[in-house]
Specification:
Number of strands: 16
Strand order of the largest sheet: 7-2-8-1-14-13-15
Shape: globular
Strand content: 25-35%
Number of domains: 2
Radius of gyration: 18 Å
Largest sheet: 7 strands, antiparallel
CATH class of the largest domain: Alpha Beta
CATH architecture of the largest domain: 4-Layer Sandwich
Length: about 300
């Protein structure tokens, strides 16, 4: 099961509506994934500042203390704000080292994303309640990806929910399962990727991050994934400027796409797309197996 939605806006006038439209799409996928949910929002990149999104594992965690310790460890200015149990930590410069420090030194939190444009939020329970609690409908931005989870291969935890992100401004949601994730995880660790769960989808996210660090475009990374990832999958991927979809060569997991001059959208079922503005005039299709569909704002 599991439900996926994705919305990539071409029309800047729709950006204030991104969160509301994504929340409505995610609502339609509640029945496909009732145990947890998450979403990634891409907004305007900030000048020279990295955002790191994290969520508490322990209710006693003090975000002010975390920010102070991170600033002392990196020698850089650190600020933060909170939304419920999440923190958006801002740090001057590249945040990769800060992400690594948080993973190593703050076990009471899970680091969800790092970059200039991306913010990821996750929760356990009813997806509608998660969307409301984390204020999804209030967000503006350029593109968004959401996921409702029916756990099959790992525990129902916030850390195990989607989207997964291991690289800068890159994230992935997944319906399916990978059969070679344990072997691939060890290979990626040797290449410097850091993982926080045993979830197979985090390995897929790490694989794409590694390929793009090696110089691949998003399109090229997904083409390589067809050779290197074994299993059943429908992926929706976000980067700072891009949005992509890939199904495995058998394509047994459901998927539907629609495109207008104003947006591109993905849903596990058409009902996730049915209320989008202009859907009556959209080009609607089922993405083909082993075919990369990609769009970019650059």
């Amino acid at each position: 099961m599991c439900g996926i939605v994705g919305l990539f806006l071409k029309d800047k006038a729709l950006e204030p509506e991104l969160g509301r439209l994504t929340a409505a799409m995610l609502h339609e996928m509640c029945g496909r994934g009732p145990d947890s949910a998450g979403f990634a929002i891409y907004g305007s990149a900030s000048d020279g500042t990295s955002k790191i999104c994290a969520v508490r594992r322990a209710s006693t965690l003090d975000w002010a203390d975390v920010a102070a310790r991170l600033g002392e460890a990196t020698g850089r200015k650190v600020t933060y704000e909170t939304i419920e149990d999440h923190a958006i930590i801002r740090i001057d410069g590249d945040g990769a080292a800060a992400r690594a420090w948080l993973i190593e030194n703050v076990p009471e939190a899970t680091v969800l994303s790092e970059g200039e444009a991306i913010e990821i939020y996750k929760g356990i329970g009813d997806p509608d309640a998660i969307s409301q609690r984390l204020r999804l409908a209030s967000f503006s931005g350029t593109h968004a990806i959401g996921h409702t989870r029916m756990a099959t291969e790992s525990a129902v935890t916030i850390a195990g929910s989607h989207p997964f992100s291991t690289g800068r401004d890159t994230c992935l949601v997944h319906n399916g399962s990978l059969s070679n994730h344990n072997r691939l995880r060890e290979t990626l660790r040797r290449h410097g990727e850091r993982f926080q769960t045993e979830n197979d989808t985090e390995v897929a996210a790490g694989y794409l991050s590694w390929r793009m660090k090696e110089g691949d475009s998003l399109q090229q990374a997904l083409e390589h994934a067809l050779d290197d990832l074994d299993g059943f999958y429908t992926f929706v991927v976000g980067t700072r400027d891009g949005f992509a979809v890939l199904r495995d060569p058998i394509a047994c997991k459901p998927a539907v796409m629609a495109e207008t001059d104003a947006w591109v959208a993905f849903g596990s079922e058409f009902r996730a797309l049915a209320a989008l503005p202009g859907i009556d005039a959209a080009r609607i299709w089922e993405p083909a197996p082993a075919t990369v569909y990609a769009w970019s704002r650059s």
